[in-house]
Write a structure and sequence with these properties.
29% helix; 3-stranded mixed sheet; 6 helices; 5 strands
Amino acid sequence: GKDFVKALRPEFRERIACIADVDEKKIELGYYCNRDINVKIPIVHFSLLIRDETLRQQLQKSFTSGGETPELGFGRISKSREEKSATGNQPAKKRKLARLYVPTIDMKCIELLPNLPVVVCVAMYRTGGALERNVKLICRTEGKDLWHVC
């Protein structure tokens, strides 16, 4: 995602509402900051992009409580080389997330996220199916309101 942001012309960088992620550490940081290109972009949990409000709330509740989410189809993307389970899911972490977004983000932005287009900046088919399940959950159509770059 960082390389994608850096590659954009400044007038297009200004249009980025947020960076969505599943990584607890990145979300806890709150922002992607790059002084060289003068950007400070909020990092939010990907569940804020889900259009179905009930599913969005279920996933958010599970994620912030540290629970597992196999019934919701959510997959955590692991960067480790450890073995995947037989179902292809990464082992769920028991750690709970303190927040889904930084408190200083504009709430109007949060409300708009389920309707905004999305650019995915992760290599598909390298996450044991977790990325593909997460993309499916946000109900976007590739080429219409979802674009995949890597």
